[in-house]
Amino acid sequence: MATTTVKAACACRTFTYQADFPTSSLPLDRALCLCTTCRRLSGSVGISYITLPRNHTVEPAKYNLTSYATSDDLVRYFCSTCGAHVFVNRTTSGTWHMATGIWDHTEGIIKWNGCKWVEDTLDGGVSVWFKEIEDADGSKRKLKRWMLKDADKGLIPEGTLEKLPPGKESSDRLKGQCHCGGVKLYITRPTEASKAVQSPFPDLMKAFHSNSSENPENETWWLRSNDTKYLAGNCTCTSCRLASGFEIQPWAFVPKCNIFQEDGKPLDFNMGTLKRYESSKDVSREFCRVCGATIFWHCEWRPELLDVSVGLLDPEEGARVENWLEWWTGRVSFEEMAVSRSLVASLEAGLKDWKQK
User: Which residues in the chain show pLDDT less than 70?
Assistant: First the structure.
């Protein structure tokens, strides 16, 4: 029987795995899950796994993985060193599912068909950006949005569930936490101190492969809407993908002076269940050592401006958190590094179309 091989690895390469799928079974339908549990468990706003063939053996202890149960039936596994989510085990059926962001290729293997559990987002989340996708043969398909599971018939009518319902008032603090609650924080509105931060431009705004990131005038690009909100964007770089386990990592750019621990004390990278992973020279990432949620990205060349995972933020604000964040629509950061090219192309096109509405 002909098979198609996928190789997977986390950021630190403590975990590596090879899966062989029957070629006749491909491509495999997959929808991004937008549920609150997955968002807070990952820090992302849409994640996915693919079921491994029954003949594959998975030995978590072999890879130094941490387990975390999110229900009586689901046990998640992530790398204890870098935090990348790699497996889900459904205990009742005995099936294993592998996170798709760590694969070396997905084109022709995964057929992306939309977003599920959109109801949890309140505002549609990233589903409002995924409108259509181009297949390998050049044809385009409309992507679907399911209220709950993609196996259900509960599709969301066009034009609905795309904004936060009226009447939801924002407070002066934006709460955030990982799924297990080991990391809890809150963000305040921009202040004068927020403007004093210095930072080069991010790849999100000026692609590093073709532009200088220098910011000689020290534009406060991270502050938006007359300095009342923070900039947010989506990253698909190899490092983010392999450190989280998923294709798309959404970041909010927030000055460190506006991030506080739950008890009101200034941010401390040793708080709660935070664990650090040095993903490259002068670059650090923090994740929750209990549930594996991606929390922060920061670096030595802009130490006072942090990237905060959007998926952690108060679900009552809606998954896009637009009362606090303004999303960059001109580019997906490091889109040229994406493995799931069709998925990221769909995201970029959807963002640009969304901006025009």
Answer: 169, 357
